[in-house]
């Protein structure tokens, strides 16, 4: 099912009004802790979202997904509050996990694992990264140590994972494990019902960010037995599916954080217009006005980059290169935006009296997950080198003399 631009924009404006009017007042709720909103707060927000008709707004009644460009309009609005994505079910990692199960899962897997996620009745977690101290998978997923071995009709998984967002409280897990070493390391994705006695939360990490329910956990997986029909897609294809998930998942982070940075800019602009120093409003001091102007420019540049990459994905491409470029540009740009918002607000900017301080912390973490900036640039440089190899020498070099 496809919907028109007008219909998609109307969904986006419904989400915006829900987030601004209903969700924002919950931002000071005591059920918001250092590891995200409590399960009870998530349930309450989702009940309100259902009543307002904005639950999982980027997935249509027949299960089809809005185009990526339409998704951008909706997810940017959901991001206007840090609680917005979790309230309307556009948050990471669920959004990316739903997308992947929708693309790769069997009909039975979709009804068992995807349906409760899409209804907003369950949360999920994606288990790929492993503890750095043990030399496990991080920037380089081929270093994966968690292994899965086939025994009869079951796979047995053992290993440790780290930074697993939302593992605490998740009902659905997508666990990646190495299933082959030679000739190249291959991994498989497994769907797992959680909580499970063989999937033990060791600790929840204390991190700079704090918007995602359940926080980010270190998890031990000990003799987890998974029936073969819970392999997501085909065995040994895990790294390929990670690519399927990664481009739209990366892009959806850009969308949500664009919404959050827009909100920070609104708060900083209001402060700069109301607050006076040296006889005039802060915004009338060029140094402050220019910071807000730079923000406006970078927000628009980020929006255009998101729209461009979304168009590439809508055209049927995996968009690996484009989503790398967009992730780097948008995460770095929105971080500068959030940093300027903090600066414009002086001491108030670093307090928790407004949302600006948390937006800054959240976007700092975004420069690392879904591929640190340097890893994307490194992979873009490899592409530049490949492309350079096929450019005829005569056109690559400037004429002499
Ligand atoms: C808040 C948060 C949530 C997360 N949620 C999840 C989750 O739900 N599931 C999951 O599986 N993982 C998750 N992660 C993990 C995340 O994907 C990894 O942190 C990321 O892939 C980097 O891996 P690493 O931390 O091991 O860094 P390392 O691999 O140790 O890299 C450290 C740094 O080295 C540099 N570097 C690495 N390779 C290169 C290169 N080729 N060229 C130049 N520089 C390089 C980069 O600057 C990088 O930041 C999350 C991380 C964070 C911070």
Q: What can you tell me about this protein's structure?
A:
This protein is 50% helix and 17% strand. It has helices at residues 5-23, 39-51, 68-78, 84-88, 94-104, 107-118, 238-274, 286-314, 320-344, 346-349, 356-366, 373-390, 393-396, and strands at residues 32-33, 36-37, 124-127, 147-151, 154-165, 172-180, 186-193, 199-205, 216-227, 231-232, 276-277, 280-281. The strands form four sheets. A four-stranded mixed β-sheet has the order 3-6-7-10, with helices on one face. A four-stranded antiparallel β-sheet has the order 4-5-9-8, with no helix packed on it. Strand 11 and strand 12 (280-281) form a beta hairpin. Helix 5 (94-104) packs antiparallel against helix 7. The longest helix is centred in the middle third of the chain and has 37 residues, at 238-274. The protein starts with a helix and ends in a 5-residue tail after the last helix. The relative contact order is 0.10. Flavin-adenine dinucleotide binds next to strand 3, strand 5 and helix 12.
Quick structural gist:
The chain contains 13 helices and 12 strands.
Strand order of the largest sheet: 3-6-7-10
Note the gap between the termini.
60 Å
What structural class do the secondary elements suggest?
A: alpha+beta
Tell how many strands the DSSP assignment holds.
12
Helices and strands, in order, run as: HEEHHHHHEEEEEEEEHEEHHHHHH
Biggest sheet record:
4 strands, mixed
Proportion of residues in β-strands: 15-25%
Query: Averaged pLDDT, please?
Result: 96
List the total number of helices: 13
Helix content: 40-55%
The radius of gyration over CA amounts to 22 Å
Shape: globular
The low-pLDDT segments are none
What ligand molecules are bound, each kind once? flavin-adenine dinucleotide
